[in-house]
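User: tokens in, sequence out, please.
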């Protein structure tokens, strides 16, 4: 059976991918790595590569998308398919950089709960901001990852200063998935990324902002299911 690696995002874990794991496990061996102890995106990518043998399909969400693009720089020959969710071509948009700098200051002075309360509505649509179950999933993940790892992840993201190299050399089946209402990683950022990867498909999920796997799990799962059916270019 094929291997499918699902990399979570900032302050996220396998809960993020619960719907996709349930639906896709019949078709692939799914591995959700933890990216909680490394200090750079490159170290996260290397740790994942060291933990898996052979070829695999790779999907990354938000922070995980940046790790996935780093993996492509390091070992593109091992990747059968690439899916990038809530992604840029490298690094954070300026408003998000500023938001993370403020978040770091808040968390470092003991305000982890304060940060989460203020951050949640910025990641989801206005209707999902009132969804108690979704909010609880967001909070559960964040507390399980914890402030120490969250700070490492934020600082690793802020260290990304420029786009990833050789996006034009990616040849495996690639899909870029974004929320149509994402205010953090904008639709325009997704369009730029999709243009830079040859033959990448671009899908916007309606009624979703940044957290597409939680906000519209059925749509994301269906898209990844179709993507997994594509024949790898080897």
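Assistant: Sequence out:
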């Amino acid at each position: 059976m094929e291997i499918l690696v699902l990399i979570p995002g900032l302050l996220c874990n396998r809960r993020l991918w619960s719907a996709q794991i349930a639906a896709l496990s019949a078709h692939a061996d799914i591995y959700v790595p933890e990216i909680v102890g490394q200090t750079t995106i490159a170290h996260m990518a290397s740790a994942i590569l060291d933990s898996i043998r052979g070829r695999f399909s790779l999907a990354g969400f938000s922070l995980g998308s940046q790790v996935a693009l780093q993996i492509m720089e390091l070992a593109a020959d091992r990747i059968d398919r690439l899916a990038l969710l809530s992604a840029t071509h490298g690094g954070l948009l300026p408003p998000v950089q500023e938001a993370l700098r403020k978040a770091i200051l808040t968390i470092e002075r003991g305000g982890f709960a304060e940060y989460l309360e203020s951050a949640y509505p910025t990641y989801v649509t206005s209707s999902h901001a009132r969804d108690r179950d979704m909010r609880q999933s967001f909070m559960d993940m964040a507390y399980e990852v914890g402030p120490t790892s969250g700070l490492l992840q934020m600082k690793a993201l802020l260290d990304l200063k420029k786009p990833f190299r050789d996006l034009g050399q990616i040849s495996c089946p690639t899909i870029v998935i974004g929320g149509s209402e994402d205010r953090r990683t904008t639709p325009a950022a997704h369009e730029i990324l999709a243009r830079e990867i040859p033959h990448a498909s671009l899908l916007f999920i309606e009624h979703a902002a940044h957290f597409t796997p939680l906000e519209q799990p059925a749509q994301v799962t269906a898209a990844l299911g179709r993507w997994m059916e594509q024949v790898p270019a080897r």
